[in-house]
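FAQ: What does a ligand-bound record look like?

Like this one, built around flavin-adenine dinucleotide:
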Amino acid sequence: MNKKLMKNVNGKKFDVVIIGGGIIGASTAREVAAEGYSVLLVEKDDFASGATSRSSRLLHCGLRYFEAPKPVRTFMMNPTRLLNALKMSKQAMKARYEIVKSVPQRVNKINFILPIYSDDDFKPWQIDIGFSLLSRFTPNDVPLDYQRIGKSEALENPLIASLSNKDKLIGAAKFTEYQFNWPERLCVDAVMDAKRLGAVTLNYTVAKIKDASGCERTIELKDHAGKTAQVKASRVMVMAGAWIDRVLADVESTMPRKSTGTKGAHIVVKLPESCRGQGITKLNSQGEPFYCIPWSDYHYIGPTETLYEGNLDEVHADSADVRFLLKETASLFPGLKITHEDVISTWAGVRPLTFDENQLKGARNKVLHDLSRHGLPGVYALTAGPIMSHRDTGREVVTKLLQEIEPHGQKISFEYVSDFSLNYADNFYSKFSEQSIKKAVNDEDARTIFDVIYRRLGIGWDYDALPELDVDHVSRIMAKELHWEEDDREREVEKFLRETKKLFDVPDI
Ligand SMILES: Cc1cc2nc3c(=O)[nH]c(=O)nc-3n(C[C@H](O)[C@H](O)[C@H](O)COP(=O)(O)OP(=O)(O)OC[C@H]3O[C@@H](n4cnc5c(N)ncnc54)[C@H](O)[C@@H]3O)c2cc1C
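The answer part, i.e. the structure of the complex:
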């Protein structure tokens, strides 16, 4: 329990304190602990509650990094952006290979299709070259299955048949894409691995850097019950996603901006059975990538991309997001005939992109910022780390640390496996068992009903199973484990219902 842990860590010194328990902080904690460093990972809410649980869930092949308004012109005018796109896509293909091979149960394979028009910026031969380049980035046993097909064959695909502008359609590019079926679990797994490797991990605890001017850094911790502790660190990694600038401003008010937050929203709809398992990617009216992605019997459509300066703890899809998504869907895929009544759910998140004064909506290149030149020696902050390459990000941090400080402990080897598949039978009823719920609370630090249902057991993302979701049942088992009185239990159920409504409801438009 946190209370005991807070007491134990108070006054301790760690090699590395990581602020932020999203996929980037969690993965870094695992890699750094395995290297033999003493690690404290602190998350102010639950692990994976930030952008990590709000993404488009694509373990994409890197094509996305070449999608830009007027791409040929954009990249010719900005060779650095092209180099970054090449670097990011290479990392994406490497990560795709590694994840599909090591945790195949955490990904779904999707047939993706990219329509090609006669007036596209990229010509078909350029698309061939692009895919051939991508496929060279990894071994052949997780192939892209790239195939360019002509117009009549393309039109056999129901999503292509639903498109507008079919008169200008000249064909399509077919390829295999992968999707994370549960990014939150990957994050929780990384936290649990980190713990097993010796890291101390705290959720529902806010971290604040109190002082980083000398040779030691002091971090103040405060949990949700108001209990506080102070720890010291040789190095601090601020991996607080879109909250990074807030964490840094608390210790250094003149810190230049490091991150730009852009909001991305999705809508969930049910398409005809013929679309099952099929995904499509296209540019929207803003020249930004727009996807229709399969999710069991459903599809999700999006994302949006708008600058976000609002409350980071209250992000949800609003009326403007849903209006935009419906308008784009109607204009790109008129044949799907999607209206507001068809939307069964929504979600939205904020991408923690890298601040770049030349790119209004931020840059997608991942940066590990060394803040020593801003008066914070030994403090680093990471921006724009996608879920896909989280393992590489953790390893890059290890490389950096090894140049600066010696680990106190021994290097430990470990294997990347998904705990969930080891400890739970992956079906709805066993997920709901008393044993699973108790395990989520007692071994995996779940504290709220939302933690259990979405981030430890994953039941919430199964839209067909949702009507059978017995929140009372979950709450009664949790109450026993967490010593909730009846009042507390009722409050927790209400909190869960409020939170799910806020995060997933379909707003009026
Ligand atoms: C709409 C959308 C679509 C996306 N699509 C994809 C995709 O298809 N594929 C892909 O790979 N990536 C995608 N991404 C990007 C990806 O989701 C993020 O880049 C990634 O999740 C960032 O992880 P993170 O750990 O840096 O941030 P987060 O997951 O946001 O974690 C940061 C954590 O820090 C915590 N924190 C903040 N302040 C403090 C503090 N003071 N003390 C303690 N903890 C603190 C927060 O509570 C939060 O949990 C998408 C993102 C969005 C929003």
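Follow-up question: can I read anything off the structure? Yes, for example: The domain at 2-52+183-258+359-404 is CATH 3.50.50.60 (FAD/NAD(P)-binding domain).
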